[in-house]
Amino acid sequence: MDKPEEILKQYWGFDSFRPLQKDIIVELLENRDVIALLPTGGGKSLCFQVPALIKPGICIVISPLVALMEDQVKALQAKNIKAMALTGGIAFKEVDTMLDNCIYGNYKFLYLSPERLQQELVQERIKQMQVNLIAIDEAHCISQWGHDFRPAYRNIAILRELKPEVNMVGLTATATLPVVKDIAQQLELKDVKILQKSFLRENLAYMVREAEDKNYYLEQLLKEHDEAAIIYVRTRKATIELEQFLVKKGISATSFHGGLQKTEKSSRLQKWLKDEKRVMVATSAFGMGIDKAGVRTVIHMNLPESLESYFQEAGRAGRDGKPAKAVILTNKSDIPLLKNQFLATLPGVDIVRLVYKKLNSYFRIAYGEGEGEEHYFNFYQFCLKYELNTLLAYNAMLLLDRVSVLSLSEQFQKKTRIQFLISGKKVTWYLEGNPQSDPVVKAILRTYGGAFDNMVDLNLEFIAGKAGTSSQETVKLLQQLHKEGIVEFEHHQHDTKITFLVPREDDITINPLTPYIKLQEKTKKEKISQVLSYVTNDRQCKSQQLLHYFGEKETEPCGICSVCEPTTTKLTREEMKKIYFAIIGLLEEREYSSREMTQRLPFPEDHMIKVLEILVEKGALATTTTNKYKLKHL
Q1: Helix 379-386 to helix 390-402 angle, to the nearest 10 degrees?
Q2: 311: three-class secondary structure by DSSP
Q3: Count of C-beta atoms within a 10 Å radius of residue 199
Q4: Residue 292 DSSP SS3
Q5: Secondary structure of 516-579 in the HEC alphabet?
Q6: What span, in angstroms and rounded, lies between the C-alpha atoms of 450 and 425?
C-alpha cells in the first residue's frame, strides 16, 4: 500500500499535508466513519481523494453542487485519475454505460447528486461496484438545523443498506454542534470519529463598519492596498452597477453572478485568478471551490443571511496566512431591509402551490405528464403574466428545486430565429434601395440556405461578425426588416431554465412539503436573528462571537477586529465633544451630508456617524429627504 505522502507528492506535488488532513486520512484508511470539519480553504477534497487512491476500488462522492462536482472531476482527470460525474441531462442509455464503466473500467471516483442516488438503476449498479469509501460533501445539508438543508440529503443513508461494510466521511466547512450530531445520526455513522480544526483565523480581522455612503467607504477600503478583493452583494444588478462604479474610480474590477453563461463565468474567474482583474464583485453564487491565496479583503455590502454563509465567504480572505480583513458595511437601513428581503419574501405553502400551478399552466403541462421536460423562459415575463411578486416567486422556485420537484437553472440565453417572407428576387430589389441592410442580409443568406422556406435558428454573433457590425445593430436592423414585412424575426431573451423532475400531480405534489416549508421559515428567522445579534454586538470580540456560535467556548479576544482595535481608535468623551461642536458649527452654515462633513472635518468617519446618530436620537438634528443633516431649530 502506498503511503499518503507518496500519493500527495505523485498527484498534487506537495511534500506535506495541511493541519488535520493527515489525521482524517489515517482514520479513513483504518475504515472508520469520520465527520471532518475544515474551514473554507482547508483542503477537504484531499481528505477523501488520497485514501480512495490508496485503497482498491471506487470512491462514491455525494455533492449538491453540479459545478463543484464538474470542477473536481476535471481536476482529477487532468492528473490522469479516472473520475466521472453523473449530473442532470444525461440520457438513460448513457447513464447505463457510464455505470458499467464504474464497475468494469477501473474508475476511482463517481460523483453523484443526492437526487441521482435515488434512481433504481444507480442503486442496483452501486451494489455491483467495489466501493472503497463513501464521501458526503457539504454534509451540513443533511441536517434540518443546518443553513442549507436539502431534503434529498436525508435519503443518502440508503448507501448504508447498499454498502454496509464501507466506511463514510461527512465533510463540511461550517457546522454547529447540533448539526454535527444530526449528521452522525442521519448518516447512521458507527463509532464516528469527529475531527475538527479550530475555526480560529488569527490573521483575519472581522470588521463591522457603519457607513451611510457605502460606495464611498468601499472606495477608501480598496485604496488601502492594491491586492485582490472580493465584494459580495445581493443581486445580479448590484454586481454590474458596483463593477461600473469601481471601474470609473480607476479600480480594476469584474463581476460574477449565477445568470452568466458558463464560458463567461470561466473567463471572468480566470481574469481574477490571474490578477488581470483585482476586484471580484459577486453574488453568493461565487466562491465554492475557489482557492485564491492572496485575497486581502472580503467585503459584504449587505448583511449576510446566516452566520454559516458569512463565515464561509469571509474565510476566502487571507488563506496565505498574511493579515487580511473581512468587512461588513452596514447602516440603519440594513436591518429592516434584511427582515423584508428574507422574512417577508419567504414563500408559504399557498404561494408555493400557486407558483407550481402557474408553471404547469405556462408550459401547458397536462396532469400526470411533464417529468423530465426542460423549458426555457424569461422569469420577469412569467411573473408579469400571472401578477406574481418576483421575490416570492423566485424563492418558491428555489424551494421547489431544493425538494426535487423541479431543477432550477439561471442562465442567460438568446433564442433568435428568422425566415424571409419575400422571394429572392424581391430581396435583391429591396437591397438596391436599402444598401445599409446589404451586409447583414447577404451574410444570413450565405449562411442559412433554408431561410426562405422555414424559420431557422440564427447565430447573431456569427452573422454580426461576417457583416462587420455589432450584435445590437444587427438586431435593430432585423427588427426594422420585420416591421417592413421583409422577414419574420423572433428574438427572445431567456434567463431561466427549469426541468420538471416529477409528473404534475398538483396538491399531491405540494401537500407533503408543508412541514418542510414551515421548518424553513422557523430556521430562517433564527438565522437572521443570529446575524443581527452579531452585527449589533459591539461589546464582544467579533472573532469570539463567531467561534462561540460554532461551539468553541474557550477563546481569547483576537485583538484585531472592529471591537478589539486599539483603544486609541475608540471614541472618547473628549473627542465626542470636539466632533459635536464641529458638526454644529458646520450645520450653522447650511445642510450637509455625512460624507460632506467627513471630508471637511478631521475625524474618522465611524466616529462622525456615531455622534450624528446620538444627535438625531436626542432631537438636536433632523435628516432631510435628500439624506442631509440640519439643525432642528433652523
Answers
A1: 110
A2: helix
A3: 21
A4: coil
A5: HHHHHHHHHHHHHHHHHHHHHCCCCCHHHHHHHHCCCCCCCCCCCCCCCCCHHHCCCHHHHHHH
A6: 16
Residue 215 CA to residue 306 CA, distance in Å, equals 23
Q: Tell me whether domains 4-196 and 204-331 share a fold.
A: yes
Looking at CATH, the fold of the domain delimited by 4-196 is given as: Rossmann fold (3.40.50)
pLDDT one-digit tens code per residue, 356-408: 999 999 999 999 999 989 898 888 889 999 999 988 998 899 889 888 899 88
DSSP 340: I
Nearest CA-CA partner of 595 in 619, 621, 628, 572? 628
Q: Is the pLDDT of residue 281 over 90?
A: yes
Residue type for 504, please? R
As a whole number of angstroms, the distance between CA 202 and CA 193 comes to 26
Looking only at Cα atoms, what is the longest distance across the chain?
A: 88
Give the pLDDT of residue 566: 67
What's the rounded Cα separation, in Å, for the pair 73 and 20?
Answer: 24
Nearest alpha carbon to residue 289 among 113, 62, 71: 71
β partners of residue 233: none
Calpha distance 281→271 (Å, rounded):
13
Domains of the chain: which residue ranges? 4-196, 204-331, 567-631
Q: How far is CA 580 from CA 210, 538, 607, 621, in A?
A: 18, 22, 10, 11
Q: How far is 503 from 251, CA to CA, in rounded Å? A: 50
Q: What share of the chain is helix, strand, coil (3-state, %, to 5)?
A: 50, 15, 35
**pLDDT for 568 beyond 50:** no
Q: Domain 204-331 belongs to what architecture?
A: 3-Layer(aba) Sandwich (3.40)
Tell me the sheet residues that pair with 73. none
pLDDT in tens, 306-362: 999 899 899 999 988 899 999 999 988 888 877 777 777 888 899 999 999 999 999
Nearest to 229 by CA among 238, 237, 221: 221
The CA distance from 526 to 306, in Å, is: 9
Count Cβ atoms within 10 A of the Cβ of residue 303 and give its class: 0-12 exposed, 13-18 middle, 19 or more buried. Answer: buried
What's the grid cell of residue 339? 427582515
CB 260 within 8 A of CB 268: yes
Angle between helices 390-402 and 349-362 (to 10 degrees): 90
Secondary structure (H, E, C), 43-85: CHHHHHHHHHHHCCCEEEEECCCHHHHHHHHHHHHHCCCCEEE
pLDDT tens digits, residue range 448-488?
878 898 888 888 878 988 898 888 889 899 999 999 999 99
Is the pLDDT at 206 greater than 90, yes or no? yes
**542-548, Cβ contacts within 8 angstroms, sequence gap of 24 or more:** 542/206, 542/207, 542/208, 543/200, 543/201, 543/204, 543/206, 546/199, 546/206, 546/307, 546/311, 547/198, 547/199, 547/200
Show the 3-state SS of 396-411. Answer: HHHHHHHCCCEEEEEE
Quickly count: other Cβ atoms within 10 Å of residue 445's Cβ.
Answer: 14
Q: Residue type at 261? A: Q
The domain defined by 567-631 folds into: Arc Repressor Mutant, subunit A (1.10.10)
